[in-house]
């Protein structure tokens, strides 16, 4: 009986471990692409407001945020309701409505093979770092149905919605500087100021003049968009964190008084 229970326990542990491994692989989109770090800042209102603007203009046509309301978002980001209705609500909805898409799900399935997913919880499922790198790594791939692929999510089944901002990004071979032991670029000892380079393939580069934003501006915009999605996944995050600080301070003060009261009760006991 004990052996049977031990065997069942071992099988359960293996199943849990396998599911965790599968979940991690799924979250990574089956890619080993080296991720750039992402550090969210939910107190940066200009970043969140710009991310909201980008999402409303470039994403909300296909991807809903059906667990989030326009009014809550506008209030949290300190956007007047009339401004939100005029510049950020394009579906004729009221300010108290949920942020749903006007796209017909049957037509979306016909166009894309499946309706575009709701993205309210995407940063909680995938992580903000994944989303940030995903938005930056679309590149031209003529073999794909929409003409683009993605480094973070290979064989992605959607077009590059932010193409006009980023420009045409391609994968190719580039000359990159060699790195010395001290972390700097290696210099050619025979030619003053000449950096030693080598060819590296599989890198992404944007064709000059094809996008509205420079590389730095696009990176900043994708930071803002990811920051906004990080907020949407848990709008009460900052409030919860502040409440947690107050609770800890209360417990510390309560602990001091409890200690003093306990010492008072037992001071006469030997």
Which labels suit this protein?
270 residues; alpha+beta; Cytochrome Bc1 Complex, Chain D, domain 2; two-stranded antiparallel sheet; 10 helices
Global geometry: flat
Poorly predicted regions are 12-29
Alpha-carbon distance between the termini?
A: 53 Å
Estimated radius of gyration: 26 Å
> Order of strands side by side in the largest beta sheet?
1-2
Instruction: Let me know the average pLDDT.
Output: 85
Protein structure class: alpha+beta
Find the count of extended strands (DSSP E, 2+ residues): 6
Major pleated sheet: 2 strands, antiparallel
The helix content, as a percent range, equals 40-55%
Which strand-content bin applies to the residues?
5-15%
CATH superfamily of the domain at 27-135 and 214-249: Cytochrome c-like domain
Determine the CATH topology of the domain at 27-135 and 214-249: Cytochrome Bc1 Complex, Chain D, domain 2
Q: What is the topological layout?
A:
Elements (H helix, E strand, L loop, with lengths): L1 H26 L17 H14 L6 E5 H7 L4 H7 L10 E2 L5 H8 L9 H4 L2 H9 L1 E3 L7 E3 L12 H4 L2 E9 L19 E10 L8 H19 L3 H30 L4
Antiparallel strand pairs: 1-2, 3-4, 5-6
Helix pairs in contact: 2-9, 7-9
Quick recap:
The chain is flat and about 85 Å long.
Summarize the structure in words.
With 270 residues, the protein is α+β, with helices and mostly antiparallel strands. It has a domain at 27-135 and 214-249: Cytochrome c-like domain (Cytochrome Bc1 Complex, Chain D, domain 2, Orthogonal Bundle), CATH 1.10.760.10. Helices cover 47% and strands 12% of the residues. The protein is built from 10 helices and 6 strands, in the order ααβααβαααββαββαα. The chain has helices at 2-27, 45-58, 70-76, 81-87, 105-112, 122-125, 128-136, 163-166, 215-233, 237-266, and strands spanning 65-69, 98-99, 138-140, 148-150, 169-177, 197-206. The chain has a two-stranded antiparallel ribbon. Strands 3-4 form a two-stranded antiparallel sheet. The chain has a two-stranded antiparallel ribbon with strand order 5-6. A hairpin with a 7-residue loop joins strand 3 and strand 4. The termini are far apart. Mean pLDDT is 85; it is low at 12-29.
